[in-house]
Design brief:
This protein is α/β, with parallel strands linked by helices. The chain contains 13 helices and 11 strands. The chain folds into 2 domains: 35-127 and 230-317, D-Maltodextrin-Binding Protein, domain 2 (3-Layer(aba) Sandwich); 130-225, Periplasmic binding protein-like II (D-Maltodextrin-Binding Protein, domain 2, 3-Layer(aba) Sandwich). The chain has helices spanning 14-36, 51-61, 66-71, 85-93, 104-113, 159-170, 189-197, 210-218, 238-243, 245-264, 266-281, 287-294, 309-317, and strands spanning 38-44, 75-81, 99-102, 119-128, 130-135, 150-153, 183-186, 203-207, 220-225, 230-237, 297-299. Helix 6 crosses helix 13 (309-317), helix 8 crosses helix 12 (287-294) and helix 11 crosses helix 12 (287-294). The two termini are 29 Å apart. Strand 6, helix 6 and strand 7 form a beta-alpha-beta unit. The protein is globular, with a radius of gyration of 23 Å. The strands form 2 sheets. It has a 6-stranded mixed beta sheet with strand order 2-1-3-10-4-11, with helices on both faces. The chain has a 5-stranded mixed beta sheet with strand order 7-6-8-5-9, with helices on both faces.
């Protein structure tokens, strides 16, 4: 590696000479730091089910970054927002981001699509916080009742989209990508709320805080409360894990430490998550709304390969996965 050099003629004036030497030293330090700095690009969604990311992102905004403090001065954190998992995993494929918080189904799909070469789950994040919402007083009680109805999900192929399709199919309905006996309509979360208010859709399968917003702002009620399901995991690019295992290990350790902090400081965590949502969504979320959403989630850093089996089966049942792919290397322990 070429060394940064400062070549100048030493001035006769002592004050000028001292200033020149200081400038040279500053340039040398800057050049050395620049060469050593690593940028870690982290993706997440503006959802309560991505609470560790919300809080860490909020700390970064304040100049008190949780990950920055634990990964060291030579690691720069950049944050990227996505609406749902398929968009985030495409960014992983494109190497636009290095790690992301994402649902289990997009993580599994990305792993299988790439033949196990592109992505690894490195930690758990949140369980629960997802639900199927219908209008209050609706006659929709079972999957069979949804014949001819419209259900919105956050994005085609995301965890809630797969869950909706699998549930409808298990109830005897034929569901295709373009329609079938019921229409599953991938729709961004803010648009779901508006369409639900206007009664242009019959149901929504989504995550917090949108579940609570549908309850409080659109007269919705929960038909299926998916409290036990894995909603969010932390994934990393496989090549990052291979080339910089120490960095990924530090990140996962910091994520686990943050998870423990959230569990031990729920009031402060709720406040910071709410503030970050306000920033990301350019709106105001009430403390009551966030408190309601908070009660539906379980914050965790644990995930096992066995716990992902049901997501594999759901994806297979609706045609997102063919055959029985080997996912034995999907979960990594950095």
């Amino acid at each position: 590696m070429r060394k940064a050099m400062c070549n100048f003629i030493i001035p006769r004036n002592a004050r000028v000479a001292a200033a020149s030497a200081t400038l040279c030293l500053s340039l040398l330090i800057t050049a050395t730091q620049s060469r050593a700095q690593t940028t870690l690009r982290i993706g997440h969604f503006p959802n309560i089910t991505h609470v560790q990311a919300l809080i860490a992102h909020n700390m970064s905004r304040q100049g008190k970054g949780w990950f920055e403090q634990r990964l060291g001065p030579n690691v720069k954190i950049e944050w990227y927002l996505y609406n749902a998992g398929p968009s985030a995993t495409e960014a992983i494929f494109a190497k636009s981001i290095d790690v992301t918080y994402v649902g289990p189904n997009p993580a599994i799909n990305a792993y299988v699509r790439s033949g196990g070469k592109e992505i690894r789950i490195v930690a758990g994040s949140v369980n629960g916080g997802s639900a199927l919402m219908v209008h209050k007083g609706s006659s929709l009680k079972t999957a069979a009742n949804f014949r001819g109805k419209k259900i919105a999900t956050p994005q085609f192929g995301n965890t809630q989209d797969v869950a909706a399709r699998a549930w409808l199919s298990a109830g005897g309905l034929k569901i295709t990508q373009a329609g079938g006996d019921a229409q599953v309509l991938p729709t961004a979360n803010p648009d779901q709320l508006l369409l639900f208010k206007q009664k242009q859709i019959d149901a929504v399968w989504t995550v917090e805080p949108w579940v609570s917003r549908l309850e409080l702002e659109a007269d919705g009620e929960v038909l299926i409360d998916d409290r036990q399901a894995i909603t969010t995991v932390l994934v990393a690019r496989a090549d990052l894990l291979a080339t910089q295992p120490a960095l990924v290990r530090k990140l996962v350790d910091a994520h686990r430490e943050l998870t423990d902090w959230i569990l031990n400081n729920p009031a402060e965590a709720e406040r910071m998550a709410r503030e970050e949502l306000d920033q990301e969504m350019h709106t105001k979320f009430s403390p009551e709304l966030i408190a309601k959403a908070w009660r539906r989630i379980e914050v965790t850093s644990e995930v096992t390969l066995d716990s992902l089996d049901k997501f594999m089966l759901s994806a297979q049942s609706v045609g997102f996965l063919r055959g029985a792919p080997d996912i034995s290397q999907l979960v990594a322990n950095p």
